Amino acid sequence: MTQLELLPIPMAQSDRIDIYSGVARMAGKVWGSLHRAATPSRTVAVIVHPTSNFMGHYLLGPLAERGIDAVGLTTRFIGNDSALTMENCVLDVGACLTFLRARGYEKVVLVGNSGGGGLAALYQSQAESPTITSTPAGDPPDLTRASLPPADAIVQLMAHPGRAQVCADWLDPAIRDESDPFDRDPDLDLFHPDRKPPFDPEFIERYRAGQLARNRRITEWVRNKLSELEAAGGELADLPFVVHGTTADPRFVDSSLDPSDRPVGTMWGPTEVANLMPASLGHYSSLRSWLSQWSVDESNGDGVKHLGRVSVPTFIGYGTADQVCFPSYARAMFDAVPHDDKRLVAVEGGTHYLKGQPELVSWLADTVVAWLGEKGLVR
To answer: What CATH code would you report for 3-162+299-374?
Structure first.
């Protein structure tokens, strides 16, 4: 029988108040749920995401049942990414791997699921050959001085290359006034009543250019605001702001783009509603977090770039019915890995979370464990 253990993992402290809870700051911990196999395992899989609570991840139990201990890791930003910095997420992953190595695990497999894909790539890149000395805003941490034990393998499951890439791909370019999501440019409006899929290539080209331009306008505004705060002096070094229209990728509306088995729409419902609803992606940010997390030009969380710097065996699995992470994301990450010790696997009919698909959860667990066995990573 597998066993469950709560892991209190010492957290590297930050000079800034980037998490709201004083209790969490005083505790100085990030948390993980360790699912232990029935027989002692010297291999552990760590499933990561910058902000989601993976302590109840659907693969933890199945991996432990197959003889591999598994940890669902939270970062300090659990449930709230408004002030998240990717560099501090890297420290939290490093704290977890240091903790697990100290407990005697000989092999550690880093599993990036969904938004964990970019984080896993960034972590391994910096663990193998650190280059990042600050956040894009110039703040600590210096990852070249951090304790970042490398993982022995990378597994990416239903993952995208990074939050900045997703922001650029999903941002609504029709919004002309950042304070009013209903002031819209009809020439770039995905939801204009006269515009129906399939969309013509010329519109998609203009649309993608508009998305990139809006991401860069926000970045320029953020830089100007930070300069104003610095010029004003005083202790205030950051501000919050709202980003409207963050779920408007044309692939949500037109399934002939980046074709797969997915249904039209998003995980949060119809695209036009999800685009503006508060609970969907990336609506709330601080200035410094935007640069680290969402700016396509400045964020360090570029999974394709960082996978190009890893040397360990890499497994990339994607769901053919995934409404979030499209086949092109998986292919781009796979192609970026610079060596031949890699595998790309389609989970046929798999949705983003494999919700209500227990047979696919079992199949995926079997496939990942078999691959790890082939690589000599099961201990």
So the answer is: 3.40.50.1820
